[in-house]
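Project standup — Tuesday

K.O.: blocked on the structure for the chain from last sprint. Re-posting the sequence here as requested.
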Amino acid sequence: MLTIRTDEGAEGHAFLGSASRDATMDAEALLTLLKPVVMGENPLDIGRFWHAMWKRRRGVSFRAIGAVDVALWDLAGKIAGLPVHRMLGSCRSSVPAYASSAALPSPEAYAEEAKSFQDRGWTAYKIHPDTRPLVDIDICRAAREAVGPDMRLMLDSVWAYSYEDAVRVGRAIEDLDYYWYEDPLEEEDVYGYVKLRQKLDIPIMATEFAPASFYGMQQWVQQQATDILRGDVAVCGGITALHKIANLADAFRMKCEVHHGGNSLNNVANLHVIMAVNNCEYFEVLLPDAAQKYGLVNDIEVDANGLVHAPEEPGIGYEIDWDLVRRRQISELR
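H.V.: unblocked you, prediction finished:
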């Protein structure tokens, strides 16, 4: 839990860390390098803070920068009495969700899960596969056969393939009418993505881990290495950075699909950005859904029509479970 408090007592909050990355990995550098940026300053100078924090990125992670930025936006929204997406400039009040699989044991397991979400009214399902190319093609085929032609399917190959295998898998899922092909190659391989995009017709999406985050996205656009940009408030450096990436994509009539944020407050922060741009089509729900929810009294829910809705309370707009925070607290750093 990161808290930024003003002299008048207003507070902004963010969660630091995720199921795969302990907060202690970033907390010390955050306090040493980022806390001095904001102390004694006007808390509404978020743009100035972000640029100052970015200059310290060699000593602190994007996740730590992102946590401070999210807390500042939460604080600013509470001061203004507005949800963050209103302050960014709202474009809509709801967005479709897609189910984003875990790694499952067999093609049949993926097929069953995709069909179960289709039966619940969801319109899209993304596969995180085995990462063995031939097995992955079987998984993608089984899922398509299970849901038929009316559900959108996507493949996220988690940077697993060689260029040659990426071509083979890409051509197979094109024939299966997959909606996008995400991260088939390693995130540094811009040259490989340029070649791959020239070979395939399916839209390619890369990558939330672009080196240099927002400032690294320019080469992906200029070299035509991807069709869709990617990001989230954790790995890209906050609401400010994610909004910049989405606007960069929009300038080139490209989509920017928002990645799962790694913890519950980051996901809400992601949702605010999604509501404030018109070039993100979906909200990602990483499975198993319940395992990704922690620390809020009520978390984001998908309605019977497969939609998630914009928060309308000031700031981030979701209530933190302070009883849980107090029960699980192991230390306090200042």
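K.O.: great, moving the ticket to review. The domain at 86-309 is CATH 3.20.20.120 (TIM Barrel). The chain has two domains: 2-81+319-328, 86-309.
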